[in-house]
């Protein structure tokens, strides 16, 4: 029997070879191009080349007998179902917001992207052969909070455009060493040291990093601040906090005292065009315990994140 596939909305105007690479993950890339060269792949009843632009609703057929050899690549790891512990914060317009737990990788064999893929798979089968959901911005493994995933190609493209235009506004709770007495504007230039896995303050050759910070409480030698990054450099808040004398509590990578609970950084608010209100993520219990010692009520900032600093 021939193998028949139907292109979905998110396959529209994509190259045929790229669709086949995603839709047939058990076939090697050379084998897919061999099928195309030998005219074993048809679109709407006609042989098609690798660069053919597929339209939504097209029927893609691998002719009978073309795939007779054993699978040339191992099957991908099965996607995981959505964990009961993972909180979905909002979904709409081709996007999904979750509250990422601290200590969880976004990518990798046990990454959050696999969990989200399992959650979205029933809908994706109907919409696309080639589009795969993925995270649209970064959160470090030890950082918790709002993380946006795409559920459609259109949603991914729109959110990525918002990021390029700096229209995505994020706010973080952070617990830092030392007493922060007033609001500050941090402007530094950073370079990434990939070998060491850290970012560093640099001279004119570095990329500009801008973060506004607002103190909201203190207890002993620790302060709780709200950090509002205007740029999105890797480890931006962590390296800038350390450079300005207030490393994140527990962030031993950037000079703070080691803490078994890890560092304290939580992305609690995210806003972009089209949302009436910011997406809000409650901080983890370890964070709440720390700020209770400061006599802080974080509910004020969670309920009215825009007005709370005015």
CATH topology of the largest domain: Pseudouridine synthase
Count the domains: 3
Radius of gyration: 23 Å
Quick one: CATH class of the largest domain?
Alpha Beta
Helix segment tally: 7
User: Please, what is the oligomeric state?
Assistant: single chain
Task: Sketch the topology as an H/E string, one letter per element.
Answer: EEHHEEEEEEHEHEEEEEHEEHH
| CATH homologous superfamily label of the largest domain | Pseudouridine synthase
CATH architectural name of the largest domain: 2-Layer Sandwich
Report on the biggest sheet.
10 strands, mixed
Strand tally: 16
Strand content: 25-35%
Low-confidence runs: none
Distance between the termini: 67 Å
Characterization of this structure:
The strands form three sheets. Strands 7, 8, 9, 10, 11, 12, 13, 14, 15 and 16 form a ten-stranded mixed sheet that branches. This protein has a four-stranded antiparallel sheet with strand order 1-6-3-4, with no helix packed on it. A two-stranded antiparallel sheet has the order 2-5. Strand 3 and strand 4 form a beta hairpin. The chain is 21% helix and 29% strand. The protein has seven helices and 16 strands. The protein has three domains: 3-62, Structural Genomics Hypothetical 15.5 Kd Protein In mrcA-pckA Intergenic Region, Chain A (Roll); 85-165, Pseudouridine synthase, CATH 3.30.2350.10; 167-303, Pseudouridine synthase (2-Layer Sandwich).
Itemize the secondary structure elements and their pairings.
Layout: E1 3-6, E2 14-15, H1 16-23, H2 29-37, E3 41-43, E4 46-47, E5 53-54, E6 59-62, E7 87-92, E8 95-100, H3 112-127, E9 144-150, H4 153-164, E10 169-177, E11 184-193, E12 198-201, E13 207-219, E14 222-229, H5 236-243, E15 265-271, E16 279-280, H6 285-292, H7 299-303
Parallel strand pairs: 9-15
Antiparallel strand pairs: 1-6, 2-5, 3-4, 3-6, 7-8, 8-9, 10-14, 10-15, 11-12, 11-13, 13-14, 15-16
């Amino acid at each position: 029997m021939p193998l028949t596939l139907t292109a979905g909305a998110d396959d529209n105007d994509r190259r045929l070879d790229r669709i086949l690479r995603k839709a047939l993950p058990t076939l090697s890339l050379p084998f897919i191009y061999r099928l195309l060269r030998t005219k074993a792949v048809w679109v709407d009843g006609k042989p098609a080349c690798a660069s053919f632009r597929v339209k939504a609703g097209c029927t893609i057929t691998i002719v009978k007998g073309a795939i007779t050899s054993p699978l040339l690549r191992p099957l991908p790891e099965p996607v995981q179902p959505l964990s009961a512990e993972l909180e979905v914060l909002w979904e709409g317009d081709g996007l999904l917001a979750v509250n990422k737990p601290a200590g969880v990788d976004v990518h990798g064999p046990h990454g959050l992207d696999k969990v989200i893929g399992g959650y979205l798979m029933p809908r994706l089968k109907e919409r696309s052969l080639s589009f795969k959901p993925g995270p649209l911005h970064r959160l470090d493994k030890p950082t918790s909070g709002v993380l946006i995933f795409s559920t459609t190609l259109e949603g991914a493209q729109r959110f990525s455009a918002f990021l390029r235009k700096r229209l995505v506004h994020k706010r973080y709770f952070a617990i830092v060493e030392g007493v922060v007495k007033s609001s500050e504007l941090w402007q530094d230039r950073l370079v990434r040291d990939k070998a060491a896995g850290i970012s560093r303050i640099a001279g004119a050759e570095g990329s500009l990093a801008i973060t506004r910070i607002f103190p909201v409480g203190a207890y002993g030698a620790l302060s709780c601040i709200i950090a509002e990054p205007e740029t999105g450099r890797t480890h931006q808040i962590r390296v800038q906090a350390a450079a300005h004398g207030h490393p994140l509590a527990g962030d031993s990578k950037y000079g703070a005292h080691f803490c078994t609970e890890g560092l304290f950084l939580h992305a609690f608010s995210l806003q972009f065009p089209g949302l009436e209100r910011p997406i809000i993520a409650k901080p983890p219990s370890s964070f709440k315990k720390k700020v209770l010692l400061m006599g802080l009520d974080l509910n004020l900032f969670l309920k009215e994140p825009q007005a709370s600093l005015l």
